[in-house]
Each structure stands twice: as structure tokens, then as C-alpha cells.
Amino acid sequence: MVMGSAAGGRAGIVLAGGRSTRFGDREKALATLGGRPLLWHVVARLGTVVDSVVVNCRRDQRAAFRTAVTTTDTDVAFAVDPDPGQGPAAGLSTALNAVGEPVVAVTACDMPFIDPAFFAWLCDRRADAGCAGAVPVVDGHLQVTHSVLAAAPTRVAVDAAAAAGNRSLSGVVARLPVTQVPAAQTRHRTARHSFMDVDTPAELAAARERHRAPRAVDRAHDPGETGVSNAGD
Fold first, then answer.
1. What is the share, in percent, of the chain residues with pLDDT greater than 70?
2. What is the CATH number of domain 10-225?
3. Where is the binding site for Mg(2+), in residues?
4. Full-prediction pTM beyond 0.85?
5. Would you list which residues are annotated within the binding site?
């Protein structure tokens, strides 16, 4: 069941093709949180606000990733990078080529606390603004991996960024007319930990602590201590 007032015509994109070098010799997306892979949590959450999900990955990841998400209630497809290791913008391009819907909700495989209701609100915010995307701001950074984008202009922006030698997601968004959701409004609409990503074993331990006792963690830690994704850079 898709949430939100503008549910039709949305696809989810999960970027998962990176090498996870800071995580050690394990596949980050398959690290477990509450007994399920991080990728499962991301797909399951995102799947409640989109019609289908496309996971961008490398060819050697696909079989294990497919197994990891089989118990979600989400229609999942896999978009394999033809030339792995070219950066997140290249992964986004690969995923966009597998999407037929006009609007995409973009996130990453290491963000297990993404907020489905906030994604639904971002979809409405983009539609109301009549622009190419809605991107929240946290700590001065555009959170591209918790954003909603119009697929067609984003394809053009990805190509333009690649032609300029820019492989970052922020380089793509810089070429789009997007509405930025100010930090204060973002805080009002969703919890800070929605943007928490897991790049290291220590951050996985912190995510597991939050998953086990979220209220206790919120009381014990200052909001500024929670890790926030800078994947757009």
C-alpha cells in the first residue's frame, strides 16, 4: 500500500553499488540490524511510499541482494552497473535507466532509518513547487539520499555532470531546479536519525543501539551527535 496523496508514478532508487571501503571486508548492505540486512530495512521502508524499487548494484552483489529483500512486500528490480566504481552519480544514472515512473525517491543502502512519511511529504512538496526535486538540508548539507526528483530532468543533469567530470550526487542536483527544504522545516517534519547512515562498524553498533532502544538513545545523546549522510558530496 502506497502512502501519500500523490502516490501514483513513483519509483524508489536505492544506491548500493559502492565498495564500502570504510566498513572492512564485509558487504555493508548485508550487515544485520535487528536480524535483517540493512538493505532489507531500506527497501521495506521505501516500498511503502513508491510503486516499485530499483536497487543499483554491481553484478557480483545482485544474487545476495536479491535474497536479502525477498521477504519484503515490495516489487524490487536490480539495475547492474555496466562499469562499476564510477561513483554515485553513475549508479543513479544506471538506476534511472531502469525506471519508467516520472518521479523517483532516492536513498542509499546504508540508511536503515529513512522516514517513509517524510518521503511522501517531499513528493507533495516537489509537486506543489512544480520543480525538478525536493531536497532536505541538514547541517548545511543537501541530503540527496533522502530526496525526491523528477526522473527526466535528472537524467539530463546526470549526463551533464558526467560530461563535466563530476561524479557526485551534489553535482547532479546543482544542475537541477530543486526546492531545498530548510533545516528548520526538515527538523519539524522528521527526526534527525532519519538521515543516519552506516559507513563503519562503529556506526553499525550505534544503529543497533538505536534499533534496540530508540527512546533511550534519544534521551542519552545530543541530536548533534547523530551521524548524518554526506553522500551527496
1. 88
2. 3.90.550.10
3. 110
4. yes
5. 15-17, 28, 56, 81, 110
